[in-house]
Amino acid sequence: MHGTRLADGVSRAVPEPIAPMPIRPLSALTALLHVYIALRLVPALAVLTPAWPLALVALAVSAFTIPLPFLSRRDGASPGTALKWIGLISMGWFSSMFVLTLVRDAALGLTWLAGVAGGVQVQWAALKPWSALAVLAMATATSAIGFLNARRTASVKRVEVPIRGLPQALEGFTIAQLSDIHVGPTIRNTYIQRIVDAVNRLGADAIAITGDLVDGTVAELREHIAPLAGLRARHGTFVVTGNHEYYAGAHAWIDELRRLGLKVLLNEHVVLQTRNVRGAQTDEELFESALVLAGVTDFTAGHFDAAHASDPHLALYDAPPLVHTRVLLAHQPRSAPVAAAAGYQLQLSGHTHGGQFFPWNLFVPMQQPFTAGLHRLHDMWIYVSRGTGYWGPPKRFGAPSEITLLTLVPARD
Description:
single chain; alpha/beta; 14 strands; elongated; disordered N terminus
């Protein structure tokens, strides 16, 4: 723990970045899973092709390099950038290899049962080697396609959000949303600059960054996050913390983002006035033309710092009651039930990556109420971005990255 002094002169303890997870147990587990894949596939491939040793070499490289991106100076080693790249690419490939090997084994087992029950003669001599080759080919192909999808600049996804009772002054108000960029070993300043250029071309009224911006400390990533200072919108750029900010040292990152000119919202709000004050005829007209943009800390932030416990109600403290249009930035979709009860019309979230690549999209609903896209919860809309970058493996398959341009429109009901 270390101390920091708040604006009111009160000192309190600030948590240090979370220590890296234990590498050795995870390395041992992934090594054993690689052995399982090799035992299930390599003998079958040896029957089919003399090039089978290449599969064994690829599995060995994968098992060795996957832990490398997660080593740190605290572990007494810090691999070079090239090895981190190889390790993260291997992670994506291994993930698909493991899942497809399980699917192959399940399919072979069902085929055997069907053969026994139905008296069907199964051509095992052809089925086993060709199915093993299919696993290798599909895992490699999806990893290659996923790499290209992940490394391209996210495309713009345009979404209209119908708001009941939307004031005329707010019709067409636009918010450009970025989420889950994960600046780190493979996402650097040139990648960020491309995103900044794409967002600035949209001419949005406001820009929202809904958490998980970084995967590393300020000292490691300061130069790579710097292009975000160039984001331009009429009302500015607003940021909320995600869980990865707390892994990396949230307090230092909050200070750094503010230094760059970004507005970090920690269970607080701002009132964005869309009409010139001098042009308003009455106070009611002035307030109705405004929008409350609130932001909460990550859903789990209270586990890292009790003072950062996420609170959508607190974020509205002292908000003008006559400003009826209220938008919340909350990293995790599971903030939505409390946000809806607090009276927001729209919540913008991320966190899920849309699953990033198959089959992880199937597991997201186990933790989050929404995976991606626009959803309705009681009287509130929630939009969940698939993310603008990626975490870990540079791989996106079936869940494309996005820069979202949300436009507020009046509800037609």
